[in-house]
Amino acid sequence: MASFLPIVFSWTHLLVLLRQFGFGIAVAIPSPNGTYGVNLSTMKLTDTARLNPFASTPKYRSVMISLFYPAALTNNCQPHLAKYMPRATAAFEDQAYSQYGVPNGTFESLELSLCSGTQMAHVQGFPLVLFSPGLGDSRLLYNAMAQSVTSYGYIVVTIDHPYDANIVEYPDGTLVFAANISTEAQIDKEVQIRAEDVRFVLDQLGSPSTVHTLLYPVITSLKTDKVPMFGHSLGGATMATAMMNDPRIIGGVNLDGTFFGSVIDQGLGDPFLLFGHEGKNQSTDSTWADIWPHLGGWKLELMLDGAQHATFTDLPLLLEVLDLTGKLPPDVAGLVGTLPGTRALEVITAYLVAFFDLVSGGRPSALLQRPNTMYPEVHFVADRN
Predict the structure, then answer these.
(1) Is 21 helix (H, G, I), strand (E, B) or coil?
(2) Whole-angstrom distance, CA of residue 349 vs CA of residue 356
(3) How far apart, in whole angstroms, are the C-alpha atoms of residue 245 and residue 261?
(4) Residue 149: which of 348, 375, 362, 319 has the closest Cα?
(5) What would the pLDDT profile of 248-272 be if each residue is shown by its tens digit?
(6) DSSP assignments along 60-118, one per residue
(7) What is the mean pLDDT of residues 318-343?
(8) In sequence order, which residues have a C-beta less than 8 Å from that of residue 135 and are 6 or more positions away?
């Protein structure tokens, strides 16, 4: 079975390198390219039906979510900036790696370019999409990707999995740090816990009180009966297990993740997209080969030239925004790839949106039917035929 655990360590190393070149002034991440300006809401959700299995004392499991939504057409936006990452989380990251001479405020300096507006208040039809991050990673490291997808007319909800993410910061200032999840048995268990998080979040997003807290008066209800999902790394395995367990999830995208659990043999019947970095395919990850014949619906496997595992996060874009592309040690390319951050985000967004258009709207895209000269970095590896 292919292992991604060394990659988790390498991501941490990359974050250290980023902080070594930190900036003390605000650095705004550019607005996405879609039709809509995007706004953001966050919320703590507590599942009183489940105790947290990793907590040192019995307590209900609480997850943090970020909800990105279309706030206005781009030409009607009232722009504003918001912190890419809350202050305590940034401080934790800086302190954790201060032994490497990391300056304070690197991630704290980053800001998202958001949009306020009420022009979309009467619209309830934006499809909902869920996202699960990689093992040991915060949902916040995918903010720009979620915002980019949202700008094309989707509501994207990203989920933190506590005691899995390196840190989860709650609104009252409580911080929860990662447990040691490293063995295959622990990872199998964690995928099940994560899938239950997804089910719980989807339940809550169907609650009028939750939607009122997150979105009123912009949007007063969400459609939760037919929802696509995507995930990166262990988030891809989470998505597949959640999809197997919950019929409301009607299609999935696995971004560069190894599969775990019974879904490999049980399979899935709804549309499914595998999107791997350069060199990752069914011949290099046995779980991709094992699950492929058990994917009974529409399916496609793509590979992204110039990409590595962390290309499917915001990290390449952060390098670019901080003007660090090509200025870090050569081995960084082995972590984030060689695609420029803006281009990587553009390509990944294009294929995610094409898939969500197919699943949520029944709108087939030529991007998913054959190679496209606009995106020569994307290779078709396998399809249903």
Answers:
(1) coil
(2) 10
(3) 12
(4) 348
(5) 999 999 999 999 999 999 999 999 9
(6) EEEEEEEEEEEEEEGGG-EEEEEESS-HHHHHHHHHHTGGGTPPTTTGGGEEEEEEE-S
(7) 80
(8) 4, 8, 164, 181, 187, 190, 233, 234
User: Token pair for residue 332?
Assistant: 């960084």
The Cα 100–Cα 20 span in angstroms is 8
- Please name which of 316, 349, 318 lies closest in space to residue 333, comparing C-alpha atoms: 316
Beta carbons of 103 and 146 less than 8 angstroms apart: no
Hey, what amino acid is at 360? Answer: S
Strands (E) in the chain, as ranges, are: 27-29, 36-51, 60-73, 78-83, 110-116, 128-132, 155-159, 167-169, 175-177, 227-232, 249-255, 272-277, 299-304, 378-383
Is the pTM of the predicted complex or chain greater than 0.85?
A: yes
Q: In whole angstroms, what is the distance from residue 177 CA to residue 179 CA?
A: 7
For 352, residues 6+ apart whose C-beta sits below 8 A from its C-beta are 149, 230, 253
Is residue 286 classed as helix, strand or coil in its secondary structure? helix
Instruction: Read off the pLDDT of each residue in 52-61 and give the average, rounded to a whole number.
Output: 91
Residue 186 has pLDDT above 60, yes or no: yes
In angstroms, the CA 109 to CA 94 distance is 12
Question: Which residues are CB-neighbours of 14 under 8 A, at least 6 positions away?
Answer: 310, 315, 332, 335, 336
CA atoms within 13 A on the CB side of 195: 24
Q: Which residues share a beta bridge with 45?
A: 63
Alpha carbon dihedral 187, 190, 192, 193, in 10-degree steps, equals 180
Measured distance CA(238)–CA(231) in Å, rounded: 7
Looking at residue 119, its pLDDT comes to 60
| Inter-residue contact 4 to 257 (CB < 8 Å) | yes
